[in-house]
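Before anything else, study the sequence and fold tokens given here and see whether the fold suits the sequence. Record follows:
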Amino acid sequence: MTEEKKLSIPEAQRTFAAGIFNKAWELLETEKRTADEDELMINAAHASLYHWRKIGEPLNFQRGEWMVAHVYTILAMKESARHHSQLCLDLTEEYGFVDFDLGFAYEGYARAAALNGDKSICKKYYKLAVEAGEKIRKKGDRDYFKEVLEEGPWFEMR
């Protein structure tokens, strides 16, 4: 019989935050989600962000806001996508995040603008995302960012 490992509350929250974030990713990658899975995806993104807000650092908050915004963008929920992409961008600017995280903040903001039909904002932030992507130091991260940037949806704005 194995003994259960007892986790402190912060350890449990870190475990939940990361695990639930990964569940949101898994659902995003599901090709034909049901309406129930869409709701679960929203809940997972918010739950992960909640736990990161309890025990994480600003970078975790920024990445969590990106995930929430991305989920709402994929589900074409305009106002929520705009709201959370703005929060992600605000955190990015407030804390001076660069590299991978700056690129994704711009990508998320551009994509939410596209969803909302804001062509000039989409174009501006897409260009900023491309420029930030070129400056990502690690080749693997840079290549991954470029791949995500090229994927849809762009709501006929690109």
